[in-house]
Specification:
about 220 residues, alpha+beta, wza like fold, Outer membrane lipoprotein wza fold like, 2 domains, five-stranded mixed β-sheet, about 20% helix, disordered N terminus
Length: about 220
Amino acid sequence: MTLFPTLRFLVLALLPAAVSPGPAFGAQPAEPSAPAGRAEAPAAAPDREYLLQPQDLLRIFIFQHDDLNKQMESVKISDDHTIGLPLVNSVNLRGRTARQAEEVIRTAYDRDYLVNPQVSVIVVKYAERSVNVVGQVNNAGRVLFPQEKGLTVVEAIALAGGQNRLADLRKVRLTRKTAEGETVVEEIDVDALMKRGGRDAIALQRDDVIFVPERAF
């Protein structure tokens, strides 16, 4: 009996394993899958739309009503967030964006004076807004808000030159005066906020005071 048929059978059986295709030349190996529970870096959140502020200067335009437009070329928002307009008198813009203000003004005129008015609101000049950052920072003092944007406590400390080597970022104090005239003090763990990449950072308001204390040794 010959061994050739048996050898031929073994060669054919092993051949597929010997010639199984590997990765193409130059191909990159597949990336290992991320371990379960690993958090992805959050996408950068867009800036919140600008809310109109006291002392902002507005130009208000109503389509095909030139007589009114001449009286609304320069309208300043008062400290109580209102503006005075012809015919409708006082309009409250507290907590409104320019687009929302257009709808408020349109409704006010549409109620008794004009039929379906088309209103545009343009901010001609933005009010200057600032906070004070004091204590253990490199450039203590007044910090301006970026125009048309908000400002967080983390950003304010950075704009004040950052904390110095004595700072205790775990016990930063934010002092704010409310609309009712009350003074509110809140302690913020800025160190924890920074470790989270600034997420959930406290949004500041005009005239807030941020105090960065010294560490206790």
